[in-house]
Specification:
The protein has seven helices and no strands. The chain is mainly α.
Length: 125
């Protein structure tokens, strides 16, 4: 059976599903956990074609994500390390921006000084 035939069969099958049945379906899991591009196409079309199943799909999706939360949870140490890197990067970026602003300010001041008319002092002789 080709891909489209399989998708059509699934489409008919899923129209009868409850949220529990969706949450127990392997292909549904692949879509929710974003592990299969073909599933993404199918489920987006299924939802568009079957808006009456939105509630069941959302409940099942939440259940699948809840069951898999540990798989995607970062350890506190990793979160802290990433946060420190973000902060350091931001500080370095801010310092660089401040240095550029200071250079621009100094160039502006120098330009003003160079443009000032020269004042000749009379020697009184």
């Amino acid at each position: 059976m080709n891909v489209y035939g399989k998708l059509e069969m699934n489409n008919l099958k899923y129209k009868q599903y409850s949220s529990e049945e969706f949450a127990d379906d392997k292909d549904f899991w692949l879509w929710v956990l974003k592990e299969d591009a073909e599933q993404e196409t199918f489920w987006m079309q299924f939802i568009a074609d079957n808006p009456d199943k939105a509630k069941e799909i959302e409940q099942a999706r939440a259940l699948v994500l809840q069951v898999n939360v540990g798989k995607y949870k970062l350890e506190d140490k990793k979160v802290n390390t990433l946060w420190e890197k973000i902060q350091k990067s931001k500080e370095e970026s801010d310092a660089k921006d401040n240095a550029e602003l200071l250079k621009e300010h100094n160039r502006g001041q120098l330009f003003k000084e160079l443009r000032k008319p020269e004042i000749k002092h009379s020697t009184g002789s």
